[in-house]
Specification:
The structure holds two protein chains of two kinds. By secondary structure, chain A is mostly helical. Chain A contains six helices and no strands. Chain B is an all-alpha fold. Chain B is elongated and about 65 Å long. The N and C termini of chain B lie far apart (40 Å). Classes of the chains: A mainly alpha, B mainly alpha.
């Protein structure tokens, strides 16, 4: 019990802080856990920079465009759409 | 979260406007192939899954109720079909399932052995380079299946946590673990690439 309490009270180390960063960014930490992480970040340039890099990583992932591919079946799909619409909800072959 | 221009497009689709459907295909087809590719063994199979999804969209659009965005609705159909189509071939060399941040980055006490070098102020320009997009695609491609699926849907396509958990049938906690590992791996790749220049 004493050990548990002291583990609870001790400050986070960098390894733990890094492991919590996605939970932090996802808003999944309890207020107490969040405060504990933020206390660590305020005093640790390495972890603060790591968090910044994680945010930049997420940002750059969101900017990766899909490969520009010709859509071979586009006209056929549009035709199928028009036929289905014309024939009502039962549609062709339904 | 419905896209702002969904309403107009949905109205035109329901009215049977072929041009609106062509716009829909143009808008999402490439993303759909990217997402399907995260689940199935080859590009050819991914393209089949996407075509099959479009047919599902054609048949189902009259029943779309607008409770999610059009994109989410389409991607739900897509992921369902991709998942039932079958898993990718096991890779000949299975990568380790760690998170790409080796234990050697920390001392026994858990502090940084060497803290991450700060990314410079021109980092945005450097991250916008076309080579970076290529390297990210390669890195995501190499991830274990479940990590690749989660990071593709969440960070690349921008779907919400609850949407992705529902599509994949996983818990929020499990999703965060997979997302954390995938992001960690991509950050490590960027650190290495940016450091080399």
């Amino acid at each position: 019990m004493v050990r548990l309490l002291s583990a609870w009270r001790r400050d986070l180390v960098c390894r733990d802080a890094v492991a919590l960063m996605t939970d932090y960014l996802e808003g999944a930490l309890s207020p107490r856990q969040r405060a504990r992480l933020e206390r660590h970040l305020a005093g640790c340039d390495g972890c603060d920079e790591y968090l910044r890099q994680m945010r930049l990583t997420i940002d750059v992932l969101g900017r990766v465009e899909p490969e520009d591919l010709p859509i071979e079946a586009r006209d056929e799909l549009v035709e199928l759409f028009l036929r289905f619409q014309a024939e009502g909800d039962d549609g062709p072959g339904a | 979260m419905p896209d702002s221009d969904d309403g107009d497009l949905i109205g035109r689709l329901r009215a049977g406007d072929g041009q609106a459907f062509a716009e829909l295909v143009d808008r999402y087809n490439a993303s759909m192939i990217r997402v399907a590719s995260a689940f199935v063994p080859s590009r050819a199979v991914a393209e089949e899954v996407v075509q099959d999804t479009w047919i599902g969209v054609i048949k189902g659009i009259g029943r779309f109720e607008g409770r999610s965005s059009l994109k989410t609705w389409i991607f739900r159909i897509l992921v369902n079909r991709a998942r039932t189509t079958g898993a990718r071939e096991p890779r000949s060399v299975e990568l380790d399932t760690g998170d790409g941040l080796g234990a050697d980055r920390f001392t026994a006490g858990g502090t940084w052995r060497e803290p991450p070098a700060p990314w410079s102020d021109d980092i945005d320009d450097r991250l916008s380079a076309p080579e970076i997009a290529t390297r990210i695609r390669e890195t995501v491609e190499q991830l274990p299946d479940s990590q690749r699926q989660v990071v593709t849907l969440r960070d690349i396509e921008g779907l919400s946590s609850s949407e992705v958990c529902a599509m994949l049938g996983i818990s929020e906690g499990n999703q965060r673990v997979l997302l954390h590992r995938a992001r960690t791996r991509v950050r490590a790749m960027l650190e290495q690439d940016l450091g080399e220049k």
